[in-house]
Specification:
Blueprint: H1 2-10, H2 15-36, E1 40-47, E2 57-61, E3 72-81, E4 88-96, E5 104-109, E6 111-114, E7 117-123, E8 126-128, E9 136-145, E10 156-165, E11 173-180
Antiparallel strand pairs: 1-11, 2-3, 3-9, 4-5, 4-10, 6-7, 8-9, 10-11
Helix pairs in contact: 1-2
Length: about 180
């Protein structure tokens, strides 16, 4: 960025052109950073009790390296909860291209629970701005370990994730994360 600024400051350009050039240079820097991250696509299949606005998610490796089998990935989705959530679970399954069945699955509770119920003020994966107000903003955060998959199949995967609250139906949300990698741990 400093080099681009130095080059632009030495050019004799009109102020509006200079501002446009600086914005373009900054955007190119952001594009380079984004391309260094893992490529993935997200498809929101269902918005139930949670809104999932486009782009309100991130999936990043914990070590900053490209994804591979065994990578730890931090998952984050945010939006608005449209009903009071008293209990629930985020669940996920991993599928590999050309595999007949899912290859891995797991889940995490929304909140800490005991034999007396769940406490929305002690989040495990679901962080509510105001657990007793509707609507309220939420942030769903959890870590997953990516499976390596079968060695004889393409390294093309998707993770299906959904949330289910105390009423079980409809799902709070349902989305798919599509990704690829070429090496495995």
């Amino acid at each position: 960025r400093r080099r681009v600024s130095q080059i632009l400051s030495q050019a004799s350009l009109p102020p509006a052109t200079m501002r446009a050039a600086i914005v373009i240079a900054a955007l190119l820097g952001v594009a380079a950073i984004a391309s260094a991250q893992q490529d993935y696509t997200v498809t929101v299949t269902q918005q139930g009790n949670f809104t999932v606005p486009a782009g309100n998610w991130s999936f990043q490796s914990t070590d900053g390296q490209p994804w591979s089998g065994g990578s730890q990935v931090k998952c984050m989705v945010e939006g608005q909860a449209l009903k009071q959530i008293k209990a629930g679970t985020v669940q996920y399954q991993f599928w590999q291209e050309y595999e007949e069945h899912f290859i891995s699955q797991s889940s995490q509770p929304y909140f800490q629970c005991d034999n007396k119920g769940c406490d929305p003020t002690t989040p495990v994966s679901l962080f509510l701005s105001d657990p007793f107000s509707v609507p309220t903003n939420y942030q769903l955060k959890f870590d997953v370990t990516l499976p390596a998959g079968s060695a004889d199949k393409p390294k093309s995967f998707h993770m299906v994730m959904w949330g289910s609250d105390q009423d079980h139906s409809p799902y709070d949300f349902l989305l798919e994360l599509h990704y690829n990698f070429t090496s495995s741990a």
